[in-house]
Amino acid sequence: MTSCSSLSSFNLHRSTVTNRHVIISSTVKTADGNNNGTSSSSSNIRDEARRNRSTSKNPFSAKYVPFNAPPDSTESYSLDEIIYRSKSGGLLDVEHDIEALRNHDGAYWRQLFDSRIGKTKWPYGSGVWSKKEWVLPQIDDDDIVSAFEGNSNLFWAERFGKEFLGMNDLWVKHCGISHTGSFKDLGMTVLVSQVNRLRKMNLPVVGVGCASTGDTSAALSAYCAAAGIPSIVILPADKISMAQLVQPIANGSFVLSIDTDFDGCMKLIKEITLELPIYLANSLNSLRLEGQKTAAIEILQQFNWEVPDWVIVPGGNLGNIYAFYKGFKMCYELGLVDRMPRLVCAQAANANPLYLHYKAGWKDFKPVKADATFASAIQIGDPVSIDRAVYALKNCDGIVEEATEEELMDAMAQADSTGMFVCPHTGVALTALFKLRNRGVIAPTDRTVVVSTAHGLKFSQAKIDYHSKAIPDMACRFSNPPVEVKADFGAVMDVLKGYLGSKAL
Ligand SMILES: Cc1ncc(COP(=O)(O)O)c(C=O)c1O
Ligand SMILES: N[C@@H](CCOP(=O)(O)O)C(=O)O
């Protein structure tokens, strides 16, 4: 099973990381050819954004409201407040001034978002900030901390779809091919940017902290390091991959390895952030979801604003399934598209509280004790966003599926055998797809998007175990172990002839 070894093998030194700017070596010229920078010999894209800052009043705004509040609720908070829960202890949501956004029609928004793709203009070169008006409309461009995340590949899974599922319109949204190797970058740019703003306002935020199964911590540490903000990450000892563990270490986070599971770490960070000036970076904090929802908008954009029939998302702490719902819903409400896709949330059978809740007709949610799974980033038994996930799935005729260890590893290996290199969580989502196709719920011609959430390279140990057939009680049907051959021409030729014979056209 994929796991990290003891932290003691690392000699940890915290370092000071200074804020860095991207320097463009050439001088900025005006249309008439004159230099127009305030600095004489060099300029950067932040300076340029500053110079071009609009002087007209910003018509857009957003605030925190209780999640799924009754229509007569007046409770709301500024995004500049440090608050994670409503008065009643429920979740919060970021609510945009929809009427202000509605002053423009769908065609306007489609054109605006499309016009920003593929450029380096600060901050719109990011797939998240290219939708800034829908994300954090009031933040100054100067406060944004971005690695130009998003704009991830939407891969047409031609061979995988055809050979394994008889499908011709299957796509994989590679959210894991990203700055720190997972979709968490999308939310973290938003959260860390807001923290940057709060610190400039002298609000009491000394550091930012999270509990993590590996990906949130990687994203938090990278974005904090880029901005020179201290980060603290709380990890369940021996339950995340080595590649994930080394990310916050390399980025200078203060790393705590704790002898508990993710749910235990989450409980701790919730308590800690109430006591210390550490800002909470987990998706309990609804700011994160504002960034993550842009992946849904991006999918529509990549399909030239046509809506897919199905979108399948692996679920753990369950913020992301709601983020996808919210992204699609905003596009629908604001007239960019004319319908919603159906969402599927896929869980590992070893960590399946949402699946059990769905199967019980959404009655009496009960957290579970999550068992070890190769999809280690979703080994979560008590998801903080359960209410958000249930709301999302109920409102889009959604489905929940589960995948056993063997199913998810086989699905991952099958996808890899067609040229992908996906993580085990994507294997969970692909298993859901197999099951729904086999039951005829998803039709062969349905346009379907599977969301791939992390880079496969973070989980190479799981793949090594699979391809070495080293997993107890697993047939590893699609394993492809290397063939050991003597350093002898004849022996190599024999092996190659046998191989080519088996592949003859
Ligand atoms: C790789 C990966 N996939 C899927 C998920 C599930 O996302 P969520 O917690 O938002 O449900 C996570 C984190 O939980 C993750 O790190
Ligand atoms: N998979 C996550 C678990 C925490 O999720 P979050 O979205 O609430 O931060 C991780 O990588 O830590």
Automatic annotation (TrEMBL):
Can you give the residue ranges of the Tryptophan synthase beta chain-like PALP domain?
146-453
Q: Where in the cell is it found?
A: Plastid, Chloroplast
Q: Which residues carry this modification: N6-(pyridoxal phosphate)lysine?
A: K184
Q: Catalytic activity, per the record?
A: O-phospho-L-homoserine + H2O = L-threonine + phosphate
Q: Which GO terms describe its biological process?
A: threonine biosynthetic process
> Per UniProt, which keywords does this protein have?
Allosteric enzyme, Amino-acid biosynthesis, Chloroplast, Lyase, Plastid, Pyridoxal phosphate, S-adenosyl-L-methionine, Threonine biosynthesis, Transit peptide
Q: Top enzyme class of this protein?
A: lyase
Cofactor dependence is on:
pyridoxal 5'-phosphate
Instruction: Tell me, in one coarse class, where this protein mainly resides.
Output: plastid
InterPro entries in UniProt: Cys_Synth/Cystath_Beta-Synth (IPR050214), Ser/Thr_deHydtase_PyrdxlP-BS (IPR000634), Thr_synthase-like (IPR004450), TrpB-like_PALP (IPR001926), TrpB-like_PALP_sf (IPR036052)
Region annotation (Disordered) ranges: 28-65
The Gene Ontology terms for molecular function here are: pyridoxal phosphate binding; threonine synthase activity
Low complexity: bias regions: 33-44
Which proteins does it associate with, and in what oligomeric form? Homodimer.
Please describe what this protein does: Catalyzes the gamma-elimination of phosphate from L-phosphohomoserine and the beta-addition of water to produce L-threonine.
Give the matching PANTHER family. Answer: CYSTATHIONINE BETA-SYNTHASE (PTHR10314)
**Protein family according to the UniProt entry:** Belongs to the threonine synthase family.
Q: What is this protein called?
A: threonine synthase
Organism (species): Arabis alpina (Alpine rock-cress)
Write the lineage as a comma-separated list. Eukaryota, Viridiplantae, Streptophyta, Embryophyta, Tracheophyta
